[in-house]
Amino acid sequence: MYLAGYDHCRRSHGGATRPGPRLLSFFAIAAGAGITIAVMLATGTLTSDLIVLVPVGSMIIANAMNACAQAMERFRADVLAHVGQIETGLSLGADPTTTVAPYVQSAVYASLLPRLDMLKSLGLVWIPGVMAGMLVSGASPVYAGIFQFIIVAMILSASGIAGLVATLLMRAQAFSSAAQLEFRPGIPGSDAHAQPALLRHHD
To answer: Structural domain of residue 122, as residue ranges?
Structure first.
């Protein structure tokens, strides 16, 4: 999971590997993939056998990483595109979280959109690789379909949690302790990844 966060940070920032973005990405990916896999193991839906856990876990972590990237980039773009509206709300006494609430919602939805589109066409337009492999190997079509549905549900769950956590962490660092907007276009450090609020409070 840490490698997934490191890779996402490196790709998102042109090779930059500052601690702040890595921790933000790691927390979001760990929350999405970790909670989903833990629940599946606790309920007995998945076994702890490496032959099952490694391929399934890698798919969950990869999708959580993609959702994290999509949510963070969408939130950053929306905030930078609406700086005037956000600062107007702040000047009128609005709570910082209220001023960016629509952009939090759109960022989480953007992180889920590819998975929702995949779910709509599942089994109708295309047959996923896991199900196709099981059918080719001679497994029961019903069992293969059930297992594939579980995988898709895990991907959707992990993506939603990772996107939500990433967006909330981004929102936490979008404002200073004085409720001033810190994301500004064209200003160094306003790329929404200067340093998470989780770290700033410990300076």
So the answer is: 2-196
Query: Which residues are CB-contacts of 137 (< 8 A; sequence separation ≥ 6)?
Result: none
Asked if residue 104 lies in contact with residue 86, where contact means CB atoms within 8 angstroms, the answer is no
Of 138, 157, 139, 159, whose CA–CA distance to 147 is shortest? 139
Q: Which pLDDT score is estimated for 77?
A: 92
Alpha carbon distance 50, 65 (integer Å): 21
The secondary element (H helix, E strand) that includes residue 201 is none
What is the per-residue pLDDT across 173-198, written as a single tens digit (0 to 9) for each?
A: 888 888 888 887 765 445 444 444 44
Contacts of 114 (CB under 8 A, 6+ apart): 66, 70
124 found inside a domain: yes
158/97 Cα distance (integer angstroms):
24
Domain count, the chain: 1
What pLDDT digit, counting tens, does each position of 57-110 carry?
898 999 999 999 999 999 999 999 999 999 999 999 889 999 999 999 999 999
Q: How far is CA 129 from the centre of its chain?
A: 23
Residue 203 resides in a domain:
no
Cα separation, 21 vs 77, whole angstroms: 16
